[in-house]
Amino acid sequence: MLRGAWLAFWIAAMPAMNVSAADEFSFDLSQYGKKAYEFGGYLQGSAEHIEVDRDAALSALSFPDGAPDSYQRYRGVLELTGKYRWDSASLNALWHGETLDEYTGNRHNTRFYELYVDADPGERWTLLAGKRALRWGKGYAFNPVGFLERPKDATDPELSREGFVLASAEYVRSFDGPLQTVSFTPVIVPVSDDINDDFGSEKDTNLAARLYLLYRDTDIDILLRSGDSRADAFGVDFARNLTTNFEIHGELAWFDERTQSVLDAGNTLVTRETEAFDWLLGLRYLTAAETTWITEVYHNGAGYTRDEMQRFYDLARATPTTPALRPTALAARQAGYGTPQPMRDYLYIKVSQKEPFEALYWNAGATTIINLHDSSYTLIPEVSYSGITNLELRGRLSLLDGGRDTDFGERPNDWRAELRLRYFF
Are 61 and 37 within 8 A, CB to CB? Predict the structure, then answer.
């Protein structure tokens, strides 16, 4: 349906790309001094203690042979980044390897999160081909307009994520006026049995684009996605510093004929069309004492209602006594009931303090995510220390609270403690 919108999108972009050279302001980013090679990364080890909520609905589904009172999980991660430059082109790589040992067994995973070539054929153009993790949107914990991304972990949003194989071009111009910068980025995302097979069930060549404007010190993006692999989508986001230490940002996304899987009264998964809009509104504030506050309200239009979630919880809770229900419950969890934010509205708050009580190299903070429909929540206090060269030590405690048939109250864990050591090189 949005194929026709491409013409209008290009028409909207073209005037900005053809502004008179007399209004143009540009500068040369010299390549002088850059090394041909760059290499880095980190090695990480972490240990977790998980206290299980044996009465939770998702414990009944996750532990069919009976949930333990608690268990430990150990994780090792090696992440390598590299860049090789020649002339105006470069080869970029981000490799991720992970091993996990826990109650249910051992798992290993290695893959390239990113592997792509980019080139600057002209002063204003950049071309890119390969596997790349794009970052669209202004939200910190959630990104409704992240049309070409894998899901973000809202409890740890700065973690690296795997990208998709794509091809893109970016055109950038700067101006001396209220409109300071314009960039336009068309993207092609192919989906086949061998490429991006988890992007969507339908094999197609999907198109997307991002038009960025810096207008009167406000960042604005207009975004579009079209193709058969996922629902067509259109989005807008913005970010603006109201003062030097106070920023407001937001995102609005519309999806055409978006569907979701829902359990009907007979516990059969059916497909239905769902709400078309997702949105986010957020604030970021840095105090004079270097305390950072981030808060975001997130509306997930494809989320479930309380009644729909209760039906799923009843099904999951019945699986130990009626094993025949387990395949349906697992399919429902996979189809959407088991996502990190399965319901409609959430409030995210993060506060972090640099060097509290003048303790050098220490940082402290806390994050909470609250389900605004049932008042259940998770609270994650943490501390970190970076006083040893190239080393970072982080400790976290994740607490979950909520009553029966609530989002966080029916998750399999009561609380989780984590100690992580990361060595950078």
Answer: no
251 Cβ contact partners less than 8 Å away, ≥ 6 residues apart:
137, 138, 139, 143, 144, 145, 235, 236, 237, 278, 279, 280
Sign of CA dihedral 250, 365, 391, 110: negative
Question: Measuring CA to CA, which residue among 316, 311, 302 is closest to residue 264?
Answer: 311
* The token pair that represents 168 in the structure block: 């893109």
| Alpha-carbon span 188 to 421, nearest angstrom | 38
User: CB–CB of 257/274 below 8 Å?
Assistant: no
Q: What pLDDT is recorded for position 73?
A: 96
Which tens digits make up the pLDDT trace of 129-172?
999 999 999 999 999 999 999 999 999 999 999 999 999 999 99
By the 10 Å C-beta count (0-12 exposed, 13-18 middle, 19+ buried), 201 is classed as: exposed
Q: Which segment, 7-11, 55-59, 95-99, is predicted with the most confidence on average?
A: 95-99
pLDDT score of 64: 82
- pLDDT(15) > 70: no
**Per-residue pLDDT tens for 299-335?**
999 999 999 999 999 999 999 999 999 999 999 999 9
Alpha-carbon span 165 to 242, nearest angstrom? 37
